[in-house]
Amino acid sequence: MGAPISIAGPTASGKSAVAMEVAKQLQAEIISVDSMQVYRGLDIGTAKPSAAEQAGISHHLIDCAGLEETYDAARFVREATEAERQIDRPIFCGGTGLYFQARQEGLGESPQADVVVRAAIEAMSYEEQLAELKAADSATFERIDQQNPRRVVRALEVIRLTGKPFSGQRAEWQNTVPANFFLIEREREDLRARIEERVDAMFAAGLVEETCSLRAALEDNRVAQQALGYRQVIGHLRGEQDLPDTVALVKSRTWQFARRQMTWFRR
Questions:
Q1: CATH number of the domain at 5-107+175-183, please?
Q2: Of 135, 155, 180, 219, which has the most beta carbons under 10 Å away?
Q3: 98-136 as b/e, with b when 16 or more CB fall inside 10 Å?
Q4: Domain segments of the chain as ranges
Q5: Which residues in the chain show pLDDT less than 70?
């Protein structure tokens, strides 16, 4: 078989349904490219494929990590590469742009995490972190997801450890993996309506109860606690806002996230 198929798109765009239909036609298997569906227990809020859907079409890199673990792009590349070796017809599908990029371009020579350097960065306020990043590497500052503090911290860590802009290091990495890449897009109002419908369905399906059962583990996992829906429901459980406001907040943040996803994929 030639280069694997990659199907990407923003949340609620229908990319998973497209991937499953293509997989049926090609007798293929799906490798998930989703940084939150890897976690066991994060089911409703991540719109994880149901057990029936996974039984009909083999899925990989779903439910492959516990909430006590940290899952990152490096681990994704390792496990996706291993899964791809074992599959005759793989289809990569998801909305985590960083993972698609890591698979396509590699992870370069980015240094390993440094506990001391990271602790110093994390001791700063988020506003101070953003100001340092803007001063040290304006290109990365413009491109990075500023709603994701973990990525800001990592960019600063790499800059401090190497003494070079993070954007310049990424530009040196080579595209080594071929792919047939397809982007699922929708009209803005259509996508927004789909997001609102999905969020309503998640709360109806028990998102609050699911979050309650996972709360302690989520609060101990700095990566997983960033997951849309769960983060806002935890705020509700802490008394920060009532349930209707929480639903509205999840819809708003999910829409903002979808817009950032489209910006990432289009560049």
A1: 3.40.50.300
A2: 155
A3: bbbbbbbbebeebeeeeeebbeebeeeeeeebbebbeeb
A4: 5-107+175-183, 115-172, 188-266
A5: 1-2, 107-110, 168-179
